[in-house]
Design brief:
Elements (H helix, E strand, L loop, with lengths): L1 H27 L6 H11 L2 H9 L16 H8 L2 H9 L19 H8 L2 H8 L27 H8 L2 H9 L15 H7 L3 H9 L11 H33 L7
Amino acid sequence: PVSSLHRGMWRTLLAALVVACLSVAVCDDEPGESAYLRLAKAAHKCDLVAIKGLLDSELIHPNEVLDDKGHSPLTAAAAKGCAEGVKELLRYGANVHHTVDALGPFFGFNALLLAARKGHVDVARTLLNSTDMDKDAVVPGRFAPTEHAMYAGHAAIHLAAIGGVPELVEVLIEAGVRLDVRVSDKHLTALDLALLLENWEAAAVLQRAGAPLSTDHLSWGMTVVLVLVGLICSLPCILATRARRRRRGSGRIGKPKRR
């Protein structure tokens, strides 16, 4: 009787363990969770295996998915910095023009604007390689210091200048974005913003590319800063020119004059 009791206890414990394992597995995928929701979650988490598996199943299209924050899988992956996920979603025809349509700090942002605001260089480069991408798209609305309109009127080049990531600024310039576009209502260019926020490296990249300043908001302080940035950028060229002249001058010393 004792041995049979022990066997019964072990069976009960084993059954409880199996049930617990199954419960954990089920918790990861809630009962009734749709493929649409799984794709949205996978994009937010940059889960490449899940993204590829769901898209390869041909049950859903990336443009059919929208989460409760107004994100498509493409904007979610771009915000996360998931360059490979963005590439995979583009391969399956994700809409590059979709903008976040839920009220919040990123209302009206498309994938490129999100990448620029977050400083994700590889994501921006991947999106700019898409022929359909609008490089100069602007966050809709009027700029206002509120959560919902903090970046209204900004283009990707403005957001990159604010973030102060020189490599991102270079990627956008190489893609041919407009450098003269101004933030609506503020009339500030990307170079204005980089200087105002003391992002000197980004400002130097913009200046080398010929980015203009907004003369409407140009103060004496900004003028001095701009001159200093220009001198710093041109200093290597000046030194190299002087070195060449010295070499040429030293080469003439000691040579006999021709008669």
